[in-house]
User: Which sequence fits this backbone?
């Protein structure tokens, strides 16, 4: 379980779709989320669970983080999902519709039982929790701190806006509070914050505006419903040249200071403290992921070779 | 006494010294002229013959001859089946069918082969039931597969001698000036038909729309045409072209296309004034779309684009990003509209496009080409003709022509389709030699031909996922498994001719 | 496990397989395979099916397979689901898989 890895894009893959599962890794999202919940019809829950199980045990996802969204424990499917998925060993089990810390802890207990049964070290499987109700939003911090396994919390907006007696709008003002509450709780708990899906695939402008908004709010990334959305998320989350240059100078300065045995570090006359260093590391990580560092212009002499 | 207007004496020695005959009247030795000068409009001087049967008789078509057709109506073609039905009914046997290509609508040819009307076929491509039957051993003589450039070469050099060309045209006038971008069955460029019109012994135009004389600008000229037959419909517009070739929503094609565009942008060939050819496949169209973004960002314009022209190319042309289009085949309504409207969207014939032995063909001047593949081996040899089951289902097209002519040839393909791997140890049929292919772009990695180390270095510097092609092959095997070898019979069902006229490969009958 | 009814799992979408399992008395394992890659992978598909059935102790069943190029892991998944459905058992023995 890795708390610090880059999680800009979490690609949602319907659990009963063999072709999409097979190809999920080629798009290089940061995480792939196999869904056993809303995208699977009740009568196909068993088949989807088996398909995801067999695929997770067989296919190579090339280092991409694997996440399975299970059904809630209040459904007839949740417990069976946990039994199967712990054995299939995704990186993360994602819990839907989390209202309180106890929801997380109940799932955690079941995961632990299965881990022991399968001879896996307890804590192998990470967890994340999706908050999709007003109560969950109110309990965001206690949810975020409910388990050591939690790598992050996510907002699921559809059920939330219905419960709030409103509907989604282009500006997203109706979920501004929930987004802010969740990202704040995640930061306070030291875990990741993920934004909800944007379902109008053909509205690229609206999607971009939303990604910019959630990046500005402080989210780590976003759940996405199509591979077509990955590039834009990664582009928006990619740092600009100025940020990269500054981050590189920060890291250089630290290395120089280490070499000299000096304790005080400054860049452009500014003191560099721990948060600035952390941000520099994260900036360079995102820059590398976006292929932005070490980009060279074409070498001469290749043309018409 | 001959009709000599001045009655001067012309000695026989002069006639024999000049190897000429004596003048025998202004009307007697010239075909296609007005005999009756009394009425200015009647009889209308024309080449129209009432029926296909009558025209077949007039052309003198007989057993063992070669007839030709073009494929500009693609899946909407009605001409081949219509003409073949008549010829078959007339009992003519043993014909060689020299089509520029054949599609799934030509399955009725199976019957004409069985009846002995057709005994040999040369074509660029073959699909559907006809292809299945030929793969199963339908014909006594193997069919000959040629490239578009190779066909033009063969016709020009007389390797293929066309006795009668039956050329469907969207419109022509009564004297045979024909074009492809007007009329109900408009198909755009008539680039493949132009070669036949030029070199066939007899040329018959088949149209559903007679235009006013002169039908300018024209692609096929009145001086090339012997007869014209008017029929109800030469092509089904729905099968001829889609409206505007729509960009795919298939995320895998989008991924491959975006990678291919980045490959072009990083290759070193991407500079102001470059030239390109992309196909009409899903990933190829997306390549054009993403390339546009790089062109706009870096303020780069292309001087020209070549080949089969699509709506994507037309848009780039009309927006000033590609100065000129050279069009041998118009793939969609937008391309058909544009070739009629735009001064610098020019029709070219197949010889100008790709004939390797003429004095200079366009593919030799192209910088970058994006191609497809059914299979590619670890030496970069490409199969675009036979499926993973060994059955004929594709076309040679301009693949080998553009691969060798271009500065950078890029093949785009998914690494596996269904459960069939694209990168394999042994391809079923070689159409394009690996020595002419530079880059392979798949959804699971990019491979560069080792003979282009500088290109590989360029792509790596741009952080593109370049890996050895053998690793791509292993990835595919790991995912899909190793297929059992297809078992072939001894019988050869198709012969693959390289563009220069040499024999590159053979296709054998698939065991039932 | 005993086959008591007809059980089907999977779809006819690309890269998937639709498998129907029903009882055939004591006629052994009978596989009716239709696959777009039958020539290349027919033997492997049959072997995957036979191995999976053996591991589930199914000695007699009629298996109808309509394959659209599914990978082995998808074939196994669909077969196991179809067998459980045909056996009328909802609780899967994950440990045995």
Assistant:
């Amino acid at each position: 379980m890795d708390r610090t890895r880059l999680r800009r894009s979490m690609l949602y893959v319907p659990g009963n779709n063999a072709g999409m599962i097979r190809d999920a890794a080629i798009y290089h999202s940061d995480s792939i989320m196999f869904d056993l919940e809303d995208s699977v019809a009740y009568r196909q829950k068993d088949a989807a669970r088996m398909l995801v199980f067999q695929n997770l045990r067989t296919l190579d996802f090339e280092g991409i983080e694997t996440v399975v969204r299970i059904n809630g424990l209040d459904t007839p499917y949740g417990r069976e999902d946990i039994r199967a998925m712990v054995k299939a060993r995704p990186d993360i089990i994602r819990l839907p519709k989390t209202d309180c810390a106890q929801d997380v802890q109940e799932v955690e207990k079941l995961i632990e039982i299965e881990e022991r049964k399968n001879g896996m070290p307890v804590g192998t499987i990470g967890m994340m929790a999706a908050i999709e109700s007003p109560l969950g939003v109110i309990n965001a911090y206690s949810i975020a701190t409910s388990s050591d396994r939690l790598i992050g919390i996510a907002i699921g907006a559809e059920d939330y806006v219905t419960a709030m007696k409103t509907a989604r709008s282009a500006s997203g003002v109706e979920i501004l509070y929930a987004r802010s509450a969740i990202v704040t709780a995640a930061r306070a708990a030291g875990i990741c914050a993920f934004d909800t899906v944007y379902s109008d695939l053909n509205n690229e402008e609206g999607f971009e505006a939303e990604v910019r908004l959630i990046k500005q709010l402080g989210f780590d990334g976003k759940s996405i419903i199509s591979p077509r959305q990955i590039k834009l998320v990664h582009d928006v989350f990619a740092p600009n040249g100025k940020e990269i240059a500054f981050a590189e100078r920060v890291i250089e300065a630290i290395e120089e200071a280490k070499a000299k045995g000096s304790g005080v570090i400054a860049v452009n006359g500014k003191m560099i403290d721990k948060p600035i260093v952390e941000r520099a590391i994260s900036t360079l990580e995102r820059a590398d992921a976006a292929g932005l560092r070490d980009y060279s212009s074409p070498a001469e002499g290749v043309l018409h070779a | 006494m001959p009709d000599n207007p001045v009655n001067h004496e012309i000695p026989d020695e002069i006639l024999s010294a000049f190897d000429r005959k004596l003048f025998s009247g202004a009307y007697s030795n010239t075909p296609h002229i007005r005999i009756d000068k009394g009425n200015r409009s009647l009889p209308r001087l024309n080449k129209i013959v009432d029926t296909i049967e009558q025209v077949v008789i007039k052309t003198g078509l007989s057993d063992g001859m070669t007839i030709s057709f073009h494929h500009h109506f693609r899946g909407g073609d009605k001409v081949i089946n219509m003409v073949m039905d008549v010829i078959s009914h007339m009992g003519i046997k043993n014909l060689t069918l020299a089509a520029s290509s054949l599609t799934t609508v030509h399955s009725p040819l199976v019957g004409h082969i069985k009846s002995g009307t057709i005994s040999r076929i040369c074509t660029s491509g073959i699909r559907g039931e006809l292809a299945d039957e030929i793969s199963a051993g339908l014909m006594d003589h193997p069919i000959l597969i040629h490239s578009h450039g190779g066909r033009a070469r063969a016709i020009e050099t007389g390797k293929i001698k066309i006795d009668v060309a039956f050329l469907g045209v969207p419109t022509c006038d009564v004297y045979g000036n024909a074009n492809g971008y007007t009329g109900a069955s408009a198909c755009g460029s008539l680039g493949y038909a132009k070669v036949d019109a030029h070199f066939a012994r007899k040329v018959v135009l088949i149209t559903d729309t007679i235009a006013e004389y002169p039908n300018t600008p024209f692609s096929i000229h009145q001086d090339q045409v012997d007869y014209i037959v008017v029929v109800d419909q030469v092509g089904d517009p729905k099968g001829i072209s889609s409206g505007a070739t729509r960009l795919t929503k298939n995320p895998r094609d989008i991924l491959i296309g975006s990678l291919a565009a980045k490959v072009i942008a990083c290759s070193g060939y991407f500079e102001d004034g470059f030239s390109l050819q992309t196909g009409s496949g899903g990933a190829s169209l997306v390549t054009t779309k993403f390339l546009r973004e790089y062109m706009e960002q870096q303020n780069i314009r292309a001087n020209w684009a070549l080949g089969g022209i699509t709506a994507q190319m037309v848009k780039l042309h009309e927006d000033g990003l590609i100065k000129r289009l050279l069009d041998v085949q118009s793939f969609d309504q937008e391309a058909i509209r544009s070739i009629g409207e735009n001064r610098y969207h020019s029709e070219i014939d197949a010889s100008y496009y790709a004939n390797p032995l003429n004095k200079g063909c366009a593919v030799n001047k192209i910088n970058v080409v994006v191609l497809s593949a059914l299979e590619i081996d670890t030496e970069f040899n490409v199969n675009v003709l036979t499926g993973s089951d060994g059955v004929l289902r594709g076309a040679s097209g301009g693949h080998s022509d553009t691969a060798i002519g271009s500065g950078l040839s890029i093949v785009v393909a998914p690494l596996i389709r269904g459960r069939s791997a694209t990168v394999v140890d042994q391809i079923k049929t070689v159409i394009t030699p690996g020595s002419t292919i530079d880059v392979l772009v798949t959804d699971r990695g990019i491979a560069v031909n080792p003979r282009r180390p500088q290109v590989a270095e360029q792509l790596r510097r741009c952080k593109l996922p370049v890996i050895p092609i053998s690793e791509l092959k292993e990835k595919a095997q790991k995912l899909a498994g190793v297929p059992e070898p297809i078992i072939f019979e001894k019988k050869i069902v198709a012969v693959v001719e390289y563009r220069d006229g040499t024999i590159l490969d053979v296709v054998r009958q698939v065991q039932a | 496990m005993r086959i008591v009814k007809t059980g089907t799992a999977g779809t006819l979408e690309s890269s998937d397989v639709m498998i129907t399992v029903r009882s055939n008395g004591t006629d052994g394992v009978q596989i009716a395979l239709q696959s777009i890659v039958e020539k290349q992978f027919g033997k492997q598909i049959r072997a995957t099916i036979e191995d999976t059935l053996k591991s589930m102790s199914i000695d007699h069943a009629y298996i109808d397979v309509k394959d659209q190029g599914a990978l082995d892991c998808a074939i196994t998944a669909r077969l196991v689901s179809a067998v459980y459905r045909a056996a009328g058992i909802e609780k899967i023995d994950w440990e045995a898989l």
Notes: The first strand of chain A starts at residue 9 and ends at 14.
